[in-house]
Design a protein that fits this description.
The protein is an alpha/beta fold. The protein is built from 7 helices and 12 strands. The structure holds flavin-adenine dinucleotide (FAD) and NADP nicotinamide-adenine-dinucleotide phosphate.
């Protein structure tokens, strides 16, 4: 069984009232970009643990995670209060199959995430492998409000480094925000507005798609993509869609 190790909080960034990131010093085992580990705190004598995707890439220290404080959420509302120097339990070994090894080869990789579901994509985008395997990469980050649109500095750095090989599109659903698509991702796949905005077409030969975050977004996108001929990736029957549901 994977071992708990003690990590030390080196930064707690409060982006908004209910969105934050933790940077943690912890001697974790090597992991694959896209995987998650478990974080835990001892609350009222009980160890409360939940899975969290690495936002940092395997060669980055400290390790980093991006959180939403769930309404009445036990662990997220305790972690948001952590201060620099506080301890947090981290599972030494990572888990999960939301990794490039599970994604068949193609020209283009589309990464679609809601909320904190963008985290594993940043981990993957900071590896050399993803740029060796795909000619072009699209990152879509869908959030409720403009204030939820974090890590834009990473998006900017990727745009500068990879130029036309990297395309980013933000969705903001609950306010109108210039430079973003207003609404939800599945509708914009269905009516073609996402592809129009990016100047790239989803194609069953050229495209692989990774979906992460809100399970309703994952489900709705999968249904719309299936109607266009895309299929889910399974070990024995490779397809086009690889998913990670956060709840
Ligand atoms: C593979 C994986 C990776 C994940 N990565 C991240 C990440 O990087 N960042 C992040 O913020 N979260 C992530 N999550 C979600 C995370 O594990 C917790 O579910 C979340 O932080 C809520 O925990 P909590 O203890 O605060 O709330 P809980 O005490 O577990 O629940 C609070 C209330 O919210 C509802 N609830 C419970 N769980 C969920 C849920 N997951 N979603 C919506 N409502 C819920 C319940 O009705 C409950 O009353 C991930 C989940 C999975 C499965
Ligand atoms: N983010 C997490 O990791 C996490 C973890 C646990 C719990 N939660 C819970 O999720 C809630 C808020 O989290 P959040 O704002 O980060 O994420 P969210 O509610 O999933 O919203 C993020 C984006 O996903 C969109 N969306 C919702 N349903 C969709 C669907 N069926 N198809 C396509 N897009 C869809 C939202 O659009 P709309 O504005 O139109 O809904 C919004 O633009 C809280 O109640 C929190 O407790 C989040």
């Amino acid at each position: 069984m994977a071992k708990w190790i003690q990590g030390t909080v080196v930064d707690n960034i409060h982006w908004t009232e209910n969105l934050f990131s933790l940077k943690i010093d912890a001697d974790v085992d090597s992991f694959t970009a896209g995987q998650f580990t478990s974080l835990a705190l001892d609350i009222d004598g009980k160890r409360i643990a939940r899975p969290y995707s690495y936002l940092s890439s395997p060669d980055q220290q400290p390790i980093e995670f991006f959180f939403y404080t769930a309404v009445d959420g036990l662990l997220s509302n305790a972690m948001v209060k952590l201060k620099v120097g506080d301890s947090i339990w981290v599972k030494q070994q990572a888990n999960g199959y939301f990794v490039l090894d599970e994604v068949p080869g193609a020209d283009e990789l589309w990464m679609l995430g809601t909320g904190t579901g963008v985290a594993p994509f940043f981990s993957i985008l900071h590896t050399e492998e993803v740029w060796q395997r795909f000619k072009r990469i699209v990152l879509v980050h869908a959030v409720r409000t403009e204030a939820d649109l974090r890590y834009q500095e990473l998006v900017q750095a990727l745009t500068e480094k990879y130029a036309d090989r990297f395309r980013f599109q933000a969705f903001v659903s609950r306010e109108v925000c210039p430079g973003t698509i207003t609404g939800r991702v599945p509708a914009a796949i269905e009516d073609g507005s996402l592809e129009d905005a990016l100047g790239l077409q989803l194609d069953t030969v050229r495209s692989q798609i990774m979906l992460c975050g809100n399970p309703d977004m994952v489900k709705d996108c999968t249904e719309i993509l299936k109607a266009r001929g895309f299929t889910k990736n399974r070990r024995r029957t490779p397809g086009h869609i690889t998913v990670e549901n956060y709840w």
